[in-house]
Write a structure and sequence with these properties.
Length: 428
């Protein structure tokens, strides 16, 4: 029986993608782990690895095809013992149509071959666990042991759905996340504004996968998450002085700590001090996180992405600076892996470099809060009951009121302000 290759879900929010380039052609022999295509997702352009082995029968989706739905069949391999003869003529199926996937009633999955004990998927050698590359990455993200899983894929291979089931995650959701289900396609199309005709000269720019995803997720956030906002002014003078001293001592290592790195560290420590704010709303329960993983908004061509600094409270400022520099560069090159931009517990967005004094950011579900940082600027400020000039930054926290109450949010904002105004505490 021929083996179908389907469009994989390469990010937690991916619903469709663009097949940028094929790296195989009919007649080629493909082995598990071979790179077979490049696919543009809503976040980046990523290489796709083959899961099964066989000879390429046909490529069903041409290079450059847009809006190819996840799980749509994009190519076929000859099964074991089959010759790669020319395939029978078949009607063309539009790449984006959901009916391009096989009907499960007509094409039942083959029985697992060489299953290990208890039905777990292992190779004939018994040592290597048979799992798709996406399943392996997701297992690392969710801390799931593949050794005890029973695979539901071809030949008993462990696939993404098996890992999600083992972790108790609803299918298709990011790690450590339970989000509201997205509206069905017709509803989303109906929600799109119908603009009247205009005589004003203009051009029509087609939305990229990333821009469509941003539009959908932020609309869902504002419609389903009850935001409330808390704002504080924070003196930066002590932090700027400490930053200058640290950067001078780190010159030989070519590490430069930014104000944003201090903010990442301060938010991480504050979440550890106020654990009731380090939570996520999950329907009928809350998730309380034992670690602060900070998603940092990075502007990239066509949108933004949020690489995650894991355990921000436990890392030195120099580590955060070095890691943030690497992640930001990879983000702008479109080379971030899903594990590098999913699973944060809170977000930070900084528009201070653009001269923005204050703004309210939109929460990135399923996270419970986002901290928005404005520009540090000289302002009149009361110091020791006297009016003076100080460098002041305005910080605004956006909180999910389903998970975080006003008093808890206020306590968190106070902890962030205290750490920034007394920055030596971040070095303790």
């Amino acid at each position: 029986m021929p083996i179908d290759i389907t469009m994989p879900a390469l990010s937690p929010t991916m619903e469709s993608g663009t097949l940028s380039r094929w790296l195989i052609k009919p007649g080629d022999r493909v082995r598990s782990g071979d790179i077979i295509a490049e696919i543009e997702t809503d976040k980046a352009t990523m290489e796709v690895e083959a899961v099964d082995e066989g000879e390429v029968l046909e490529l069903l989706v041409p290079e450059g095809a847009e809006d190819v739905r996840v799980n749509a069949v994009i190519a076929r391999l000859a099964g074991e013992g089959e010759e790669a003869a020319a395939p029978a003529a078949r009607p063309a199926v539009a790449p984006g149509r959901p009916d391009s996937a096989p009907d499960p009633k007509e094409a039942p999955a083959p029985a697992p071959a060489n299953p290990g004990p208890g039905g777990t998927a292992r190779t004939s050698g018994g040592d290597r666990i048979a799992a798709s590359p996406l399943a392996r990455r997701l297992a690392r993200l969710l801390n799931v042991d593949l050794a005890g899983l029973k695979g539901s894929g071809p030949k008993g291979r462990i696939v993404k759905a098996d890992v999600e089931a083992a972790a108790g995650q609803p299918s298709g959701l990011p790690a450590a996340a339970v989000v509201e289900p997205s509206a069905p396609e017709p509803a989303r199309q109906a929600a799109a504004p119908q603009l009247p005709e205009t005589d004003v000269p203009h051009e029509t720019v087609k939305l990229s996968n990333m821009r469509r995803t941003i539009a959908r997720r932020l609309t869902e956030s504002k419609q389903t998450v009850p935001h409330f906002y808390l704002t504080v002014d924070v003196r930066l003078d002590a932090l700027l002085k400490l930053r200058a001293e640290l950067n001078k001592s780190l010159e030989s290592k070519r590490i430069k700590i930014s104000v944003n790195d201090f903010l990442v560290k301060a938010l991480g420590l504050a979440l550890m001090q106020v654990p009731d704010a380090n939570v996520s709303f999950a329907g009928d329960h809350l998730r309380k996180f034992a670690r602060a993983d900070i998603s940092v908004a990075v502007a990239i061509p066509g949108g933004l992405i949020t690489p995650v600094i894991r355990d921000a409270a436990g890392k030195r400022l120099s580590q955060i600076a070095d890691e943030m520099k690497t992640l930001a560069a990879r983000a702008r090159e479109g080379r971030l892996q899903p594990a590098e931009y999913t699973g944060g517990t809170a977000s930070l967005s900084n528009l201070g470099m653009y001269g923005i004094r204050q703004f309210d950011a939109v929460i990135n579900p399923p996270e419970g809060l986002i901290l928005a940082a404005g520009a540090g600027e000289k302002r009149p400020h009361v110091i020791d009951d006297a009016l003076a000039i100080a460098t002041v930054m305005t910080l605004t926290g956006s909180f999910d009121h389903r998970a975080i109450d006003g008093a808890v949010g206020a306590e968190l904002m106070g902890a962030v302000r205290s750490l920034i105004e007394n920055p030596l505490a971040m070095l303790a």
